[in-house]
DNA sequence: CTGAATATTTGACAAGCTGAACCTTTCTCG
DNA sequence: CGAGAAAGGTTCAGCTTGTCAAATATTCAG
């Protein structure tokens, strides 16, 4: 809706982001596959890192329908990576919790993301600091707008 | 395989990248959906921006099986966004070309990516320049490693 | 000319995702 | 209190994405 002046730098940065998104996405998918997880399963498992979550909240975080999460959690549960627990406060709610095995899997997966090492290795300590601040500010802006 | 010292900045930057990738991905998907395209269809259509491409090359660029592209192109073709043309040099090859309508759709979609405006709006001209250079170098590094 | 290699398609099948219909539990308010 | 609305999950049908194996057509190598 807003008609800004055409800063030639902006589309250029957007294309770079798009390319980086592609690289990141591919690497994530491969790291997951190496542990026989799909990308979606890895994402859900990753969300449980800080503790159990209700189905609904998982769906909300991933911007998808709750019915979709049912299937993904089914498959994770079938493999013993995750558990459904009843919420004592509200019996409608089922909290999904990572099992011991599940937690180990995500920790391992996160540690294996080479994306960290290789592309970032091209930057000096100072530049990483710069990059962090720039990204942080973009993200804040994005969150403010949603 | 490489055991680097644990630079505390690196995982932090990786998490930021992951978050930004999430935002970007979501916005792309929504922009595509607003034109009744799926993400995959939009990606393929976007590749044809600079001219027709053989099926195989599309598959290679998107890192997926050629048989997958067949279906996506089928659906794009059914909607008149894309055409299969025979290659005069090698009759095994089918080149996929965006139609008039198809080109218009991608141009529009690209233009609509607000990701450009909003998060980047938080940065000054100078900072965008910095960001571009940092991203460019990361990407070069990532490509060198693949 | 024959056999290997290449480009694409087809078919079967799993997973992701949506939307609508359906329980169960909780909340609201007359 | 009790009836109906609302909220959390699940189920089901249907579509798209993606893989793998087999089949077809064309080109290439010797």
Give the structure's gist in a few sentences:
With 146 residues, chain A is mainly alpha-helical. Chain A has helices at 9-33, 39-47, 55-61, 66-78, 100-112, 117-121, 125-145, and strands at residues 53-54, 82-86, 94-98.
Textual characterization of the structure:
The structure is a homodimer of 146-residue chains. Chain A has 146 residues and is mainly α. Chain A has a domain at 26-112: Winged helix-like DNA-binding domain superfamily/Winged helix DNA-binding domain (Arc Repressor Mutant, subunit A). Helix content of chain A is 64%, strand content 8%. The first copy, chain A, has helices spanning 9-33, 39-47, 55-61, 66-78, 100-112, 117-121, 125-145; strands spanning 53-54, 82-86, 94-98. A 3-stranded antiparallel beta sheet of chain A has the order 1-3-2. In chain A, helix 2 crosses helix 4 (66-78) and helix 3 (55-61) packs across helix 4 (66-78). The mean pLDDT of chain A is 90. At the A-B interface, helix 1, helix 6 and helix 7 of A face helix 1, helix 6 and helix 7 of B. Chain A binds a DNA duplex (30 and 30 nucleotides) through residues 38-41, 54-56, 64-72, 75, 90-94.
Name of the level-1 CATH class of one domain in chain A:
Mainly Alpha
What number is the mean pLDDT of chain A?
90
H/E topology pattern of chain A: HHEHHEEHHH
| Largest interface by Cβ-Cβ < 8 Å | A-B, 48 and 49 residues
Q: What is the straight-line distance between the termini of chain A?
A: 15 Å
Strand content of chain A: 5-15%
Cα gyration radius of chain A (Å): 19 Å
Q: What is the count of β-strands of chain A?
A: 3
Reported by name, the CATH topology of one domain in chain A is Arc Repressor Mutant, subunit A
Helix content of chain A: 55-70%
The main sheet of chain A comes to: 3 strands, antiparallel
Shape of chain A: globular
Low-confidence stretches of chain A: none
CATH architecture of one domain in chain A: Orthogonal Bundle
């Amino acid at each position: 809706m807003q008609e800004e002046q055409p800063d030639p730098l902006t589309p250029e940065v957007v294309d770079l982001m798009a390319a980086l998104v592609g690289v990141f996405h591919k690497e994530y998918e491969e790291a997951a596959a190496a542990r026989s997880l799909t990308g979606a399963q890895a994402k859900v498992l990753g969300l449980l890192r800080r503790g159990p979550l209700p189905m609904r909240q998982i769906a909300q975080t991933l911007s998808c329908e709750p019915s979709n999460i049912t299937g993904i959690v089914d498959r994770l549960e079938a493999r013993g990576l995750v558990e459904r627990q009843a919420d004592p406060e509200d019996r409608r709610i089922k909290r999904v919790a990572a099992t011991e095995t599940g937690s180990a899997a995500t920790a391992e997966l996160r540690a294996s993301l080479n994306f960290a090492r290789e592309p970032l290795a091209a930057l000096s300590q100072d530049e990483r600091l710069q990059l962090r601040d720039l990204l942080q500010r973009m993200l804040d802006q994005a969150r403010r707008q949603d």
